[in-house]
């Protein structure tokens, strides 16, 4: 019956003068959001729904399905704290009967359409009677989450969870672990932590190497431009310095030339005065000579 279309399962008309009493059952071990979503669908099956949830006890569950992680009392209590549940029915039967439906005045039974084996051992569907009576309301399973999946995760990482609980104060005897097993787990964890530290250190070293290489590449790429810029600045500085020195020399030479001209002019004036004085002396002598002759 797996994969059977929903329309092929007949369903009675719901009552309209009172809340529709919908029943959902299961084991609900390690209660998770997949369980909550299925109960939400059951609760929202009709506009006015009263949801009853049945849960099998440990004896029945261990007999037909296997060992559970949580006890039946823990599973009952988990259901009572689900917002979609109006009433919890403990010690629910593995196979639903007409007597059970009448006792709790159940209008519909909500469950996914996959067949579940009954207690006969011949593979009969436990919901076959309900489906035939038109009281079955299909819900959808949530992919990716189930109690079996959660247990598989724990089994897969068993050693990690053992060490987790040892670190939290549980004794090896409480965890069912031998002395040798405990020491081996601790040594292995120490080696793993050391390996992780070495790996992180290697990553840091590689990161630094990459940073240096990146800066080197930037320098190589810009070396020509930087050298050309430096040479241009150096040449410009030398040119400015040379111009300043030249201007200073020219200024000094100009100053010396002016001083030389002034000095020469003063010497010429001195010579002129000397010549003139000599000329005047000669004239006076001639004058006196002339007077003697007269």
Automatic annotation (TrEMBL):
UniProt pathway: Phospholipid metabolism; phosphatidylcholine biosynthesis; phosphatidylcholine from phosphocholine: step 1/2
List every stretch annotated Disordered.
269-294
**Which Gene3D superfamilies would you find in this protein's record?**
HUPs
Report keywords, A-Z.
Lipid biosynthesis, Lipid metabolism, Nucleotidyltransferase, Phospholipid biosynthesis, Phospholipid metabolism, Transferase
> Where do the TM regions start and end?
none
Query: What Enzyme Commission number does this protein have?
Result: 2.7.7.15
If you read the UniProt record, what top EC class would you report for this enzyme, in one word? transferase
Q: Which intervals hold domain Cytidyltransferase-like?
A: 23-152
Gene Ontology terms, MF aspect: choline-phosphate cytidylyltransferase activity
Under catalytic activity, the entry for this protein gives: phosphocholine + CTP + H(+) = CDP-choline + diphosphate
Q: Which family does it belong to?
A: Belongs to the cytidylyltransferase family.
Quote the function comment for this protein: Plays an important role in the biosynthesis of the phospholipid phosphatidylcholine. Catalyzes the formation of CDP-choline.
- What protein am I looking at? choline-phosphate cytidylyltransferase
């Amino acid at each position: 019956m797996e994969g059977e279309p929903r329309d092929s399962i007949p369903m009675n008309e719901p009552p309209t003068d009172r809340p529709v009493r919908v029943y959902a059952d299961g084991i609900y071990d390690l209660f998770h959001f997949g369980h909550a979503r299925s109960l939400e669908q059951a609760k929202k099956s009709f506009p006015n729904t009263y949801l009853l949830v049945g849960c099998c006890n440990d004896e029945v569950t261990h007999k037909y399905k296997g060992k559970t992680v949580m006890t039946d009392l823990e599973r009952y209590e988990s259901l009572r704290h689900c917002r979609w549940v109006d009433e919890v029915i403990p010690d629910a039967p593995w196979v639903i009967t007409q007597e059970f439906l009448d006792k709790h005045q159940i209008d519909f039974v909500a469950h996914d359409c996959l067949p579940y084996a009954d207690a006969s051992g011949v593979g009969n569907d436990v919901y076959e009677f309900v489906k035939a009576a038109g009281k079955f309301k299909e819900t959808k399973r949530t992919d990716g989450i189930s109690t079996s999946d959660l247990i598989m995760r724990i089994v897969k990482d068993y050693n990690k969870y053992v060490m987790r609980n040892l670190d939290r104060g549980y004794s090896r005897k409480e965890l069912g672990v031998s002395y040798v097993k405990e020491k081996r787990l601790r040594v292995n964890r120490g080696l793993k932590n050391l390996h992780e530290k070495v790996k992180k250190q290697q990553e840091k070293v590689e990161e630094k190497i990459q940073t240096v290489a990146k800066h080197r590449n930037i320098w190589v790429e810009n070396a020509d431009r930087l050298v050309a810029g430096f040479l241009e600045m150096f040449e410009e500085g030398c040119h400015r310095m040379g111009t300043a020195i030249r201007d200073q020399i020219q200024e000094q030479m100009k100053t010396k030339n002016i001083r030389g001209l002034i000095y020469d002019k003063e010497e010429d004036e001195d010579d002129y005065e000397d010549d003139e004085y000599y000329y005047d002396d000669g004239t006076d002598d001639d004058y006196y000579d002339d007077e003697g002759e007269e």
